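Supplementary Methods S3. Complex input for the (2S)-2-hydroxybutanedioic acid-bound model.
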Amino acid sequence: MKKPIRVAVTGAAGNIGYALVFRIASGEMFGKDQPLILQLLEIPVEGPQKALKGVAMELEDCAFPLLQDMVLTGDANVAFKDANWCLLVGSKPRGPGMERADLLKDNGKIFIAQGQAIDAVAADDARVAVVGNPCNTNVMIAASQAKRLTADRFTAMVRLDENRGRALLARKAGVAIDEVSDLFIYGNHSPTMFADFTHAKIGGKAAAEVIGDEAWLKTEYLPAVGKRGAAVIEARGQSSAASAANALVDHVRDLTTVGQVHSAAVNSEGRYGFAEGVWAGMPVRTTAPGTYEVITGFEMDAFAKSKIALTNDELVGERETVKDMLG
Ligand code: NAD
Ligand code: LMR
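Predicted complex, serialized as structure tokens:
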């Protein structure tokens, strides 16, 4: 039997939290042979703490063999204590008509305090994955406050965008999802993201060739992927939750499975033209559990470069907005 790992989840009684924790406890994120202890954080006020207790009761009632213990708390220093994985979900979602960047002022400060707590108490091998929006910039804030851990330990989630982009290509081409490969998301988790259809494949062939409609790819497909979150909010009246939790399961499972190639927002060292120090979506390959390398071999054409420049400008602008929150 493996030694249990400690997995901290913030906002555990929220919409994503409720769709997420059961899947972690069932072994979908870290494997069916990996026992774990869930350390669940909610804001320290009566309603959310009571709701958190209810979530814990249901977790208990699932009798998951892998779930060895649970910690329920309103204190980040307790939640992140010795945590091997810190999943930062808790923060405000946007409503209809808002952009994710509108959340920066409110949500950014959450990641100052949580970055500091992670720095103080998390395990030496801690990995951090940020979902709370705007996630690329929130992860930068957290990482800047947690200097004990190197920047590569901090990732943000663009996997929902990759999954959306693959599903949309499969639907357009009339093929099964598994036929769509090599679709990677570059840049910000915002409408400026670039879902790189220029290197995507359908059934092993260039997606652009199979789709046969470059205008559709440029003017309909890209905006549809970029604005899918807003479309879900419009339809559901609430931001995506089950698909976001599913994407986080994919994100962490692939980051812990050697050889997996997938999109993640990682600290930029200047590759693909992203400014150094921002967190930008790009393709990564997992080289050891929790460790990855950026895949650098994709040649971008002028169109792709112009899209990447746009999303990079937005990331640099967001960094400027939060400069007072960076440690
Ligand atoms: P929600 O409001 O349903 O739940 C958020 C929970 O976080 C609440 O229970 C709240 O009490 C808690 N919370 C707030 N501040 C906290 C703090 N400082 N510490 C601990 N808990 C705290 O929202 P949701 O639908 O679960 O969404 C959560 C976040 O995820 C939002 O910012 C949303 O925009 C974002 N999101 C990101 C993606 C992505 O692809 N990156 C996808 C979907 C949603
Ligand atoms: C999403 O992409 O569904 C989330 O980031 C929620 C949102 O605000 O769009």
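The longest helix spans residues 302-321. The CA atoms of residues 56 and 122 lie 22 Å apart.
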